Amino acid sequence: MDWTQRDLAERTSISAVSIRAFEKGGDMRESNLRLLMLTFEAAGIIFQADGEVTGGGIGVRLRSSIDDA
After folding, report:
1. Is 24 helix (H, G, I), strand (E, B) or coil?
2. Domains of the chain
């Protein structure tokens, strides 16, 4: 995505300090985790659950133009 912590903070209204702490292994409120996930999904990130079988394999990936169809 090429976003800085500041970019992500601006997109989510979560403080850059909280994002930085989370990236270092700290805890984050469930509501903020959901907000992060929704923000990334809106930007084209696909989160695949454990055991979910879709094109591209398990994990996190960018949505392709084929997925948009």
Report:
1. coil
2. 5-68 (1.10.260)
